[in-house]
Structure formats: C-alpha cells, structure tokens
Amino acid sequence: MTTLRDLKIGETGIITKVRGRGAFRKRIIEMGFIKGKEVTVIRSAPLRDPVDYKIMGYEVSLRRAEAAMIEVVTPDEIPDELLNKKFEGVIDADPLTNIANEKGRVIDVALVGNPNSGKTTLFNIASHSRQMTGNYGGVTVDSKLARFNLDGYTFNITDLPGTYSLSHYTPEELFVRQHIREKIPDIVVNVIDASNIERNLYLTTQLIDMDIRVVVALNMHDEMLGKGDRFDYHAMGRMLGIPFVPTIGTRKKGIDDLFRKVISVYEDKDPDVRHIHINYGQDIEHAIEHLQPIIKEDTSAPDPVAPRYYALKLLEKDDSVTSVLERKTNYAEISSNADREIKKLENLHREDTETLITDARYGFIEGALKETFKPGKKEKGRRSRFVDRYITSRYLSYPIFFLFMWIMFEATFLIGSYPMEWISRLVDFTGSELSAIMPEGMVRNLLVNGIVGGVGGVIVFLPNILMFISLMEDTGYMARVAFIVDRIMHKVGLHGRSFIPLLMGFGCNVPAIMATRTIESRSDRLVTMFITPLMSCSARYPVYVLIISAFFTKYQGTILFGIYIIGIILAGMVAVILKKTLFRSEETPFVMELPPYRIPTVRNIMRHTWNKGSQYLRKMGGIILLASVIIWLLGYFPRNEAKLSHFDDQSIQISHDYDAGIASNMGNAELIRKLSEEKVLTLDSINILKESRRQEYSFIGILGRFIEPVMRPLGFDWKMSVSLIAGAAAKEIVVSTMGVLYEVGNSAKDASLTTKLREQVYSDGPRKGEKVFSPMAALAFMIFVLIYFPCIAVIAAVKKESGHWKWALFVAGYTTGLAWFSAFLVYQIGSFFFYLIKEASFLLNRFNFIFCV
After folding, report:
1. Quick check: 44 pLDDT over 90?
2. Residue 465: what pLDDT?
3. What is the pLDDT of residues 316-362, one digit of tens each?
4. DSSP one-letter code for 219
5. Under a CB-based contact definition with an 8 Å cutoff, are residues 240 and 270 in contact?
6. Which stretches of 143-245 are DSSP H helices?
C-alpha cells in the first residue's frame, strides 16, 4: 500500500483512497484530495514537515502524518505491457487512472457486533468462507479475513471478536477497539440482533462516539417480525446518521443489499450519513467540552479516533487510552484536567462517572426507541424459558447434561461403526491390491505398510470425528452448560466463563487455548489455559476408539465417557492446586448471556461437518503422512540382513522338509493339503518373528528399547512407547505409528489393527509368550494418552497466549509427569487387584474340590 507520504519530491501519484474520519477527512476532501485526482510532490520544509503538494492546479501543504492517510497509485505500479513504448517510456495517463480507479474500488470492512448476533454467519455467507459459527459467546476469539466481489467492488472483510462494548474489561473489547484505531477500516458493519435491539444498540452508540463510518446490519429480522415487533429502522437511521439494512443471515436474505449500502456510504452518496453527538447531559457535556480542546492541542499526528471519544474514555476511567494519550506532549495537562472533571462530576451526582455515562447512553437509546420501536404482544423467549425450566433446573440439569454426553458417545459407536467398517475395508482392499500388483521391495513396503498402514489406520476414525459435538454447538446449549457448571467451577477457583474454552477443548485444544482471551482475569486465564490440555481433543479420539474396540467390547460408550470424565476430574484437581499455590487471586464475577435456543440448520451442520472433515484430512495429508513415512523409515532401516540370515536358512530348511514330506505322500490328497497349510503357517510365523527381530534392530527399535525401562512399570512395551513419542506431534499419529509398527508378516496383512493389537505377544524376556496388551495395560495406555504432553501446536499456542516459554514448558512437563504417575497407578493397582481376584478364584476352586471330595 503506497501513501502520499511515500512519494519523493517531483513524483506523481493518483489518489485511490482517503482514510481518516470526521473533520480531518472532510477538510482533506474539500481541498481536492479525492479519488482519481493526480497529485505531485513539490517541495518539503527544511525539517521535512510540512510538504507542499500540487493538486487540481494549486498547491496545498500537508503534514507527513496527514499525507500517510491518503493512498495513491504510482507509475512504478504500472505493468510493463501498459507502458507506451512508442514514446520511449512516457506513461499514458489512462492506465494509471484505471489502476487508481480499480484500487479505489477496494473497500475494507470490519464486522463488529455482540456475541450471538449472527456476525460470523453473515461473514461466512457474504464471503463464501467456511469459518466456524456457534451459538455461544467466544467462538470468534481472533479476527478472520476474507475477500469477495460485488458490483465491481472488492470487499476485504474482517470478522472481529464478538463484544458487548468497547470498554476496557475484556481482551476482545480492547482487540476490537485497537483494530478500528490502527487498521482504520473504510466502513464498520455493526451487526445487531434485531430480536434484542436495545442491548445491541449500546455498542452502536460507542461506534458513534468514535466518529467512524458505520452501516448497521439489522440481523435476524425474521425473529423480530415473528414476535410482532414494529421498528421504523429508516427513521432510526436518519436519527443516528447511520443507515440500517435488515438481514436474515441464516437464509441469505439482505446480504447483497447490505454491501450495496456499504458501497453507497463508501462513495459518500448516502444522504442519511452524518455524524451526531450523543447528548450525555449538561454536566458531562461540559466536562467533555473542557477536555476536547486540551486533547486537540497536540496535532503532530492525525488520530483516526475523535477527541470527543478520548474525552469520554478519560471520564470513564478507561486506563487503556493512557498508552495512546501519553504520547502527546501535553499528556500531564490532559490527565490532571481529566481527574479534576471526574472528581467534580462524582461529587455533584454522588455516582461513579462510568455509571453516569452508561446510564446516559441507555437513556439515549431508550429515547430513540420510543420514537421508532413498538414491541409486539408476543412475549419474548417463552420457548427458551420453558426449556430452561428443565435444562437448568437444580435437580435435572446435571443428569440431563451427562445423559446428552453419554448419548453422544454411544451414538458415536453405534452409528459411526458402519462407515468406519466401510473405510476399514477400503483401506484393507487398497493395501491388498498394492501388494498384489507391485513387486516386493522397498517401494511396496513404503506404500503398503508406511502410507496405507499409517494414514489408513487414522482415516478409519473420520466418521467418529465428524459426529463429535456437532449438534450441541448450534443450539445454544453450550451456554447453558457454562451456566449450570458455574458453581462447580467456583469450587476450583474459576467461574462458568472458563468452561467454554474447556468445552471447546473437546474439539481441539488449540482454539480452546486461544478462547481463554475472553477471560478477564490473567490468573484465571492462565489456569484455564493450563488445564485445557486435559480435555480430550478429537485427535485423541481415534486412540480411544482403537483401544476400546480391541479390548473392551462391552460397554464401549460408557468406558469412553469415563475417560472424558477422568480428564475433567483431573482438570479440576489441577486447577485447585494451581489456584491455591501459583495463582492466588480473588474470584471475578460471572456474567454471560444465555442466548435463545435455535434449531440447527442443515446448512450449518453440513458446514461444521465439512470444516472438521477437511481439517482432519489436511492434517492426514500433512503431518500424519510425514510422520508415518518417518516412522516407517526408522523401522525399515538398517536392514541387518546378516543378523537375520539364520531365519532365511531356517525357512529354506523347513520348506525343504515339507516339500519332501509332500513328495513322499503323493497318493494321499488330504495329507498333502494339511502339509501345504502347515508349511504356509510355519513359514509365516518365521517371517513374523524375523520382521519382529528386524524392528528391534532398527533405529526405532533402538529408541524404543532405550526408553522401555521407564515405560515398563506402566505395562508398555517398546512399540507402545515409540507410538507415544511420535504422538507428541499430533495424537492421531499414535494410531498411525501403531499401524506401521504392527504391520508385519503376510498373514497379518488382511487383519485389522485391532486384531493385531489383541494378538501381540512378548517374543522374549521374562514375559515371553504373554499378551502385550492386558486390559489394565490398555486402560493405562488410554490414561497416558489422555494426560501426557499435548501436541506441539498446543505448546506453541500456550506460549503465544501466555507470552512466555516458561509456561509452555511448564504445561509440557507437568502433563507428562502426571500422565506417567496416573498410568502407573492404574496399571499397578489394577494388576494387583486382578492378581488377588485370580488367587481368590483359585483358592475358592480348590476349597470346592476338597469339600466335594
């Protein structure tokens, strides 16, 4: 982006856009600095400021800071093919003007609105984007950018976090305010929930105070009409100087009209657009009038925010404006005068100035609505209150919550098992066909055992991932969950708002950790961040499904449900310890909106399913594929043919003996058939033993043997240990690594991974011949996966959100240590009880035998 400030003396540009607001922008435009006009740099003052520019035949002086607000296109940006070669590089004015006009038709739009106003849904529909939407606060915790075209204009739209105001209480409020101030969008689209206009207009009044160009999207207009409300939004638009456009985001209605109105406002063609001053009452207005000229005194740089807005923020005791205003040379004077005016107002009204200003805003909104809004006879929210009577009741809320979760887990196995089986058969078929058509060697081994065995072992669980929590996200039930668990969260030193990131953690820990930005208290934010990895993300899900399907064929949904409950209980215990040691602080009050229940649309369900599926497939095509190939390479090399040659000799000898036996019994067809089958089985068992030894001698076997002593008390062999190490990159890789490590021998080729795990036995050592996976070892393995080192992306997210590597390393360390200790207790105590039961059974049988005798 080139601005007028970037041009050197003698250079020329054509204006594409004038940024800024209010009086500054009006003055600049009146001086002739409008889109499409040619401007030339004439000279600069001795101290480089101000600079003289020639425009429309006369000279104008601007400060460099003001020139930075005017975007231009220069001859350097013209492609070579548009240069007029006939006149030796002389530029034809038309291409430059055309490029300027084209760049001037790019509109930067910021979407601002309350949580649950449908802002992200509108963003998705307008831009054909696929951002996640959810009917609970805190879904959009960071800005998202998309681009689309309409009527010859290009829109760069930014979806900002949902916020109720532009105050200084929450990170998202500061984020939105900072974005508007620093990025200076051409138009702010304020998305309003039409079914709750009064509350939503509070944010609108703050945007008015900022003196920026705003268009209101009156979203969910159908819900307002359904209640029988009548709203003269045209009159309200003329009153506020802001155009209102009714939209229904879920039905794609009014979206084009909204952005055509944005074009009209951008081109300064809308007759209703004007800047108004909200009247805060005689005393507050007198204080504002006193502070404004003092704030204006330092004009060294134009500010995109109006001085009146800063005066209001100072009176509201908003500390966040200090970092902006303290750059002014007269900040000491500004601060002392603000303190004096605050004291004067509070002594006069016996009320905090922030409360005074808030009351005045709502008074203005109430007065405006009296003239334009008539409520219908239908009582608002009756259906939601009827449902909440049971959903949030004292005795039924928790049973209903646990019932919903249990049903979800059971449905995952019952419904998800069919597509799982189809995909599993497809994976097996693919491996078998590749084995049949390709010659034996390294490439076939890589494709069959490395890629198909590794990635295919994970893709089987795609249907389960797609089903997980999809329906609950759109209904409004998640906000109720935060409400009903608030008391429990208080027991661990947190509050209900912390539960939303934790609940999001069941999908993915990374956005859940980012969602902690919505928590006001830093100590609460850090504690929530540290316990979020104990929420079982969908990446762990394939591991649970694999182990449960293999070793716990009864009560599968209940066991899976129990694993998730264990994670929640551990998170609570860790939170209590952290709040009583490292992060002691006072509890903050719980304030959260309970949005109305909405039936999820098929469109949104399909969009969420596509989002999850595409993210999962991208991960498999990237990090999981790479990890599978690396694991295969580590397991394939070195080949160690010399060490394994005795297996080949043994196979040759056995094959020779069986061939001799078959030759000597040529007349006995049944015996020949049995000998042939025995020959294949015997040779296969030798090949399996050979490949098992090869893996032990490979690089991955060496690594596994190295850490096996540490993991042996948990009941894990070296292959399980290596799988856990590989899972540090992404938890799905645990399954793909197992798929590679256990893909041995021809007889195992057509068996599923669950079958291979059940059949694994120790090939040497004191437990030779015993099953590797006992029920307790399998349970300990799931517990370890539940707790240990979160993926690298989570560690990076913790570092980013906490602002320090020490907290990221703390999370990595404490989760891994807790995982080892928990798995140790599960395996050792469980094995001891199994031993007692076995001994008791033996003694009982012996007693019965003696008694019978």
Report:
1. no
2. 54
3. 988 878 777 888 888 889 999 999 999 999 999 888 898 899 899 98
4. E
5. no
6. 171-183, 197-209, 221-226, 233-240
- Phi and psi of 139, rounded to 5°? -70, -50
For the cut 80, the answer to whether the pLDDT of residue 160 exceeds it is: yes
Tokens read off for 93: 């004015």
Do the Cβ atoms of 376 and 197 come closer than 8 Å?
A: no
CA-based torsion, 367, 368, 374, 378: positive or negative: negative
Residues 114, 162 contacting (CB under 8 angstroms)? yes
Q: Which of 55-64, 124-133, 186-195, 682-691 has the highest mean pLDDT?
A: 186-195
pLDDT value of residue 777: 92
Between CA 223 and CA 401 the distance in angstroms is: 28
> Beta 51-55 vs 214-219: how paired, if at all?
unpaired
Residue 443: what residue type?
V
- Whole-angstrom distance, CA of residue 77 vs CA of residue 54: 21
Nearest-5° Cα angle at 48, 42 to 54:
20
CA 29, 32, 35, 39 torsion-angle sign: negative
Q: What does DSSP assign to residue 111?
A: E
Beta-carbon contacts of 170 under 8 Å, excluding residues fewer than 6 positions away, are: 163, 518, 520
Alpha carbons 25 and 19: distance in angstroms, whole number? 7
Q: How far is CA 825 from CA 540, 819, 830, in A?
A: 21, 10, 8
**Token pair in block for residue 751:** 């068996």
Amino acid at 842: F
Question: For residue 592, what pLDDT band results from cuts at 50, 70 and 90?
Answer: low
Please state whether beta strands 214-219 and 153-159 pair in parallel, antiparallel, or not at all (unpaired): unpaired
Residue 184: closest CA among 341, 46, 71: 71
Compute the distance between CA of residue 398 and CA of residue 388 in angstroms, rounded to an integer. Answer: 13
What percent of the chain clears pLDDT 90, i.e. is strictly above it?
A: 20
Residue 225 near residue 376, CB atoms below 8 Å? no
User: What distance in Å separates the CA atoms of residue 434 and residue 190, rounded to the nearest whole number?
Assistant: 57
Whether 263 and 107 have beta carbons less than 8 Å apart is answered as yes
CB contact set of 197 (below 8 Å; sequence gap of 6+): 224, 231, 369, 373
Q: Which residue has the tokens 């055509």?
A: 260
Task: With a cut of 90, say whether residue 780 has pLDDT above it.
Answer: yes
Please give the Cα distance from 313 to 131 (Å, whole number): 33
Task: Tell me 1's DSSP state.
Answer: -
Mean pLDDT of 363-384: 78
Where residue 88 falls (left for φ over 0; alpha for ψ -120 to 50; beta otherwise) is left
pLDDT in tens, 599-643: 666 666 666 666 656 665 665 566 667 777 887 888 788 888 888
Given a cut of 60, whether residue 171 has pLDDT beyond it is yes
Nearest alpha carbon to residue 361 among 248, 182, 205: 205
End-to-end CA distance of the chain: 99
Query: DSSP assignment, residue 624?
Result: I
Instruction: Output the CA angle 391-397-403, nearest 5 degrees.
Output: 95
Residues 6+ apart with CB under 8 A from 434: 444, 447, 448, 452
User: What is the torsional sign of CA 27, 31, 33, 39?
Assistant: negative
Judge residue 215's burial from the number of C-beta atoms within 10 Å of its C-beta, 0-12 exposed, 13-18 middle, 19 or more buried.
buried
Cα(780)–Cα(713) distance, integer angstroms: 11
Asked if residues 11 and 41 have their Cβ atoms less than 8 Å apart, the reply is yes
**H/E run at residue 148:** strand 144-150
DSSP-derived 3-state class of residue 147: strand
Q: In 329-452, where does DSSP find H-type helix?
A: 331-349, 353-372, 382-391, 397-437, 442-445
Q: How far is CA 413 from the centre of its chain?
A: 26
**How far is 620 from 641, CA to CA, in rounded Å?**
33
For 258-307, the pLDDT digits (tens) are 999 999 999 888 988 988 888 898 999 999 999 999 988 876 656 667 78
Using the 8-state DSSP alphabet, how is residue 643 labeled? Answer: T
